[in-house]
Amino acid sequence: MTFDVAKIRKDFPILNITTNGKKLVYLDSAATSQKPAAVIDAVSDFYRNRNANVARGLYSLAEDATVAYEEVRDKVQRFINAPYREEVIFTKNTTEAANIVMRGWGEKFVRKGDRIVTTVMEHHSNFVPWQQLALRTGAKFELVGITNDGELDWADLEKKMKGAKMVAISAASNVIGTINDTRKICKLAHEYGAISIIDGAQSVPSIKTDVKSMDCDFLMFSGHKMLAPFGSGALYGRQELLEKMDPFLYGSEMIRSVKKDKSEWNDLPYKFESGTPDVAAIIGFGVAIDYLNEVGLEDIREHEIALTAHLLKRLPSVEGLEILGPKDAKKRAGLVAFVMDGIHPHDIAAMLDADGICVRSGHHCAMPLHERLGVSASTRASVYLYNTKEEIDSLADSLKNVRKVFR
Amino acid sequence: MEEIYQEFIIELYKNPLNFGKMANPDYKAEVQNTTCGDMIELYIKAKNGVITEAKFAGKGCAISQASASLFTGYLKGKKLSELKNITKDDVLALLKIDLSKNPTRMKCALLPLDALRKAMK
Lengths: 407, 121
Hints:
The structure holds 2 protein chains of 2 kinds. By secondary structure, chain A is α/β, with parallel strands linked by helices. Chain A is built from 14 helices and 17 strands. In chain A, strand 7, helix 7 and strand 8 (195-199) form a beta-alpha-beta unit. In chain A, helix 2 runs antiparallel to helix 10 (279-295). The longest helix of chain A is centred in the first third of the chain and has 20 residues, at 60-79. Chain B has a single domain (2-119), classed as Alpha-Beta Complex (Sufe protein. Chain: A). Chain B has 4 helices and 3 strands, in the order H-E-E-E-H-H-H. In chain B, strands 1-2-3 form a 3-stranded antiparallel sheet, with helices on one face. The interface between A and B is medium-sized, with 18 and 20 residues.
């Protein structure tokens, strides 16, 4: 099947709406992606025709819901090439996945004086948990820097890895777009006997992810950034690590037996899936993965690179606009953040909104990175499989108008 | 949305009123906007229970800067005892724009009021 953006757009009902009287131009997929009709319908169909709690009831309706829910685990396993299905834990999002690792592994195994390594380019969800882990355990919190080109500072990483217990790095930055060589990071981590934790929130939706060849210990990502409903996400963890970890949330589903004075934990992955999950969202997650597989992740990535290249070409035509991060589209996730001389990102986003264009403005949950870049906030346009070059042209035209108003 | 960007707002953004740090203020507070990390500082001098001078420093978007410009002007001459009665509608009335459907922008507009509440604590 050839990649046909016009055909893909027809699968996304929201792309037909108007906002502020203008055609919707959605350039904020890095915050959350839009959803195809197949996903929306699957959620609706679940509630209309298949709704029952999972792993509890013995009647057919409940058994069918359980089977459907577990099938999604297989889909996620194949999507990231995880060795075992028990290594896939459903979470609400990337943040919850990070907290499972922090509480379950970190608090149990990290000791005073150990080194926790992360980078200055992380999203808060892959930063705050480790910062707090360091504060709770008395471990040293080491931040790897970036070069002036927005690349990971490898020399700094190598220096800080000595004596490290864990390293947490994003596969792709949500602000400067930098794609990090996760294989190299995981290899380095293992050479130093450290655990590697990869934040795949911005990479898994469009860049082929293979945890086996990457050789990471943990991978975290969100379903809602890859066409799936809110409330769906996953944590991949290496089986032997998951086995040794403590549960994060205690309660139902995660236990095998409960006595008056003690409880025994359930097997993987249920040990980490306490309470009734968002079954409908997970069902939708499975349909989203089917959709991505059908279109083809390689084609999606190629389209994303073409759009990113177009952003990198068109945006600098706006007077006083400066792009943050690497200038090569192939080295970036499908997003471009920028600043405009003398105009605040909030004002830029609000004025673009009047033209129907949705972009993100602010610190994008990456305050340490903005501090490193020397700006308090930025504006970010991000793209996905349904975006077009024409939409990027509209963005550039609109930005020129913003410049005029603030002249 | 675009009607927010009236000329006087843009003008106040480019040339804010009552802008700059104040030496020895009687009341002072710093507040941050959580969505963009913008920070403003509010300074107040008072004599016999009446505000004689109000200034602000820091940076932000056109809305927060215009709001702080107008709000510091509004504070001058106010009795300290009256300050607790100032509502968010009073601040929005100064800006003469409707932000009722823009909760995120509302935070920008109300940043100076947050600073006042913190300063008077």
